[in-house]
Amino acid sequence: MSGVCSARNTSPINCVSFAEASKHVGTIACVSGTVLAVEDGRKGTKILNFCKDKTCPFSVVVFPADLKKMGDVRQLEGRQIEIKGTIQDYDGRAEIILRRSQQLGEGAFLLFPTVPTDYDVERAGHYSAGKSTHAKAAKKTDTRQSDPVPLEDPGEPQ
Description:
mainly beta; elongated
C-alpha cells in the first residue's frame, strides 16, 4: 500500500484491516482503520474515508435517515475505529453501511456530546452551578360564592 493509507491491523479483536475488507464482501465482519476524512455525499449522505485519495478500497456510508439517530459522525475523523456489519461491494469498492451506533462498539461514545455538569434540567437551555431556589407559593383562587338564589319560582303565586 502507499504511504497515504495505513492498513495495519492493530485491533485486539479479530477485525480485518480496511485494506483487506474487499476479500470479505458478502460476509458480516469487523473492519478496523483510522478515519482520515468525513466527506459529504449526495443528498446529505456522510462518507467515512480511510485514505486521502479517491482510490481507497473501503469506506463507511451513513445515510441521512440514520444520521438523525447516530449523532455527529464528523467526530470520528482522525480516530481509529472498528465497525461491524455486512461488507458490500459498491462500484468496485468495499463498504459497510452504518445504521446504528452499536456497530462502532466502544467508538460509539464519541458520537454523542457530553452532558454539561452544570445543566439545569428544570430550565431548558439555562445553566446553573447547582443553586437551589424555594418553590413559589401556589396562587390563591377566589372561593367567594355568588348571591344565593331563592328556591321558589318568582313567577309562581305564593
